[in-house]
Amino acid sequence: MEEAVAVRRALELLNQNDPVLRVEAARDIRRLTKTSHRCRRHLRHAVPPLVSMLRVDSPEFHEPALLALLNLAVKDEKNKINIVEAGALEPIVSFLTSQNPNLQEYATASLLTLSASPTNKPIISDCGTIPLLVNILRDGTPQAKADAVMALSNLSTHPDNLSIILKTNAMPCIVDLLKTCRKSSKIAVKCSALIESLVGYEEGRIALTCEDGGVLAVVEVLENGSPQSREHAVGALLIMCQSDRCKYREPILREGVIPGLLELTVQGTAKSQPKARTLLQLLRESPYSRPEVEPDTLENIVCDIISQIDGDDQSGKAKKMLAEMVQVSMEQSLRHLQQRALVCTPSDIPITNCASQVSSK
After folding, report:
1. Is 21 exposed, middle or buried (CB count within 10 Å of its CB: 0-12, 13-18, 19+)?
2. Residues in Cβ contact with 117 at an 8 Å cutoff, skipping those fewer than 6 apart
3. Residue 140 region, left (φ>0) first, then alpha (ψ -120 to 50), else beta?
4. How far does Cα 98 stand from its chain's mean position?
5. Cα–Cα distance between 197 and 200 in angstroms, integer?
């Protein structure tokens, strides 16, 4: 009952001519919609007047209205679409170039939320948003950078947007963010996903390898990232090696990728394990199969690569990882056999019954 009264009051205040009351209403709407999906539904009629506040040349209106719209859009597809249809994109995109860092942050967060809607993605990119998001990724606050890369990741799933992202020279900014963030973080997932998509183009592959520490940053995610980010990392390296093995094999090997790949072949996800095995095969000096006397077991493939690696430290680490990988594989096989033995052991069948069954045959 109290919630319904608060919703009605906020809508009434929002439609007043008094600027102070409208700002108060926007703040109330932000508070009411922070955690309540029901309030987001009941306050859908607040979208047009809130968008009109963004268009007014009164800075005191912008932040309260933008934050209210942001909360209205969270986890509500219909509100996301309504906000864009009401004309919110033009002022929101303009706030990306604001001298007010808070307004920049709120605008970036709003675009992150709105870009989660498949309906909104082409509309957002058509507004010239992608280059401005890349600028935020380059020069924004830490929070704005994180939201910008996630918004770009959302937009990258729509056809044609990847080519726009490539034209803005976004790769250095993405790599810089990937270097500094926690490799197990959501930001690392979005950065590695973007890189995996961008290296599907030759311009993206060149940009990554030309960036100082670019390939190394991807290898570090492969080693220390979350399961999802490791999938993207090994996928990116595999795409590069498959596109031009002679060109990208050495840059990948140089960054010490073998230990991480070995671990993925045993402990990776269902998607990353076969990718890691395929990449190991491609990293061999010869892409062709060995003679039958030396079959293409994973151990032979890895030993072949190790023999070609320069530097005792890297070679020794790879050999140690190979030994550990074999040990883990043996332990997993032993546990599997023990579990099967427990299932198959007829411990609950009386011996006399077994004897009678044998004698009756």
Report:
1. middle
2. 77, 80, 81, 84
3. beta
4. 27
5. 6
pLDDT in tens, 7-56: 999 999 999 999 999 999 999 999 999 999 999 999 999 999 999 999 99
* Backbone angles phi and psi of 9, in degrees to 5: -60, -45
Cα separation, 303 vs 288, whole angstroms: 15
Q: How many residues does the chain have?
A: 361
Predicted confidence (pLDDT) per residue in 306-358, tens digit: 555 555 555 555 556 555 555 554 555 455 556 655 655 444 434 334 333 33
CA of 48: how far to CAs of 14, 84, 114, 127, in Å?
10, 10, 16, 20
Angle at 151 between CA 149 and CA 156, to 5 degrees: 90
pLDDT at 212 over 90: yes
**Nearest-angstrom CA–CA distance, 223 and 262:** 10
Instruction: Give how far Cα 338 sits from Cα of 71, 77, 333, 348, Å.
Output: 53, 50, 9, 17
pTM of the full predicted structure? 0.81
Greatest Cα pair distance, the chain, in angstroms, is: 99
Angle value at C-alpha 246, between 289 and 281, nearest 5 degrees: 35
Q: Count the alpha carbons within 13 Å of 244 in the hemisphere toward its beta carbon.
A: 10
Hey, what are 91's tokens? 């002022």
